[in-house]
Design goal:
Elements (H helix, E strand, L loop, with lengths): L6 H18 L6 H7 L4 H7 L3 H20 L3 H7 L3 H35 L1 H22 L8 H22 L6 H22 L1
Helix pairs in contact: 1-2, 1-4, 1-6, 2-3, 4-6, 4-7, 6-7, 6-9, 7-8, 8-9
Length: about 200
């Protein structure tokens, strides 16, 4: 008769995998290390997760989903209520605090996971790509551009995404003491972005 899986053991595996990556780096994770830290034989870890990648997905997917809920803003609908760039700048300022509270909840529950993401290029590039898509959606809904951005437009998106991510990485290192700085940083970056596009257009 097959033994039932213990939910507490599964939680312990996840917690220990996070600790390994947080202390030793993302690339340091292995099933053997997780088993050793969890006081299990490797075969038992495989009963809960088929691979190291499955553990990583369990750890990081909630973070990416949470970020997507923040970044996937319906700008086509927002524009109906806030039709001009001045309106959208006012919208950003008035809505940044609730958005930051949302991000604060994410940091509170997944602080170590976020630090791991930002310290691993393959994962932080994923975040940067998501931010680029967010900026591109804002751009396409408020400015008369073609569906395909030219090279200069792509570079501008990449520059702002990288700058915003770099600023947030620096700010969260002292979270929650500088929560207001994170709020101001994101708000100012978005408004500067809109201002620059207005000048360029």
């Amino acid at each position: 008769m097959a033994r039932l899986l213990n939910p507490q053991s599964r939680t312990k595996i996840i917690k220990n995998a996070i600790e390994i990556m947080h202390k030793e780096g993302y690339q340091a994770l292995s099933m053997r290390k997780v088993a050793l830290k969890s006081n299990m034989v490797v075969g038992n870890v495989y009963r809960y997760f088929k691979s190291k990648e499955e553990i990583e997905h369990e750890i990081f997917n909630p973070v990416f989903e949470h970020l997507d809920s923040f970044l996937n803003m319906p700008f086509d609908q927002i524009k109906l209520v806030h039709p001009t760039t001045s309106d959208v700048k006012a919208f950003i300022v008035s809505n940044i605090e609730p958005a930051i509270e949302n991000i604060s909840g994410l940091l509170q529950h997944h602080y170590k996971e976020i630090q791991i993401i930002f310290n691993e290029p393959s994962l932080s590039n994923n975040i940067s790509h998501r931010v680029s898509l967010f900026l591109q959606a804002l751009l396409k809904n408020y400015f008369p551009i073609s569906d395909e951005l030219d090279e200069e437009g792509q570079q501008l998106l990449k520059m702002f995404s990288s700058s915003l991510i770099a600023g947030v990485i620096e700010a969260i290192n002292n979270y929650p003491h500088n929560k207001k700085i994170i709020s101001k940083l994101i708000s100012n970056y978005l408004i500067i972005y809109v201002n620059l596009i207005e000048i360029d257009i």
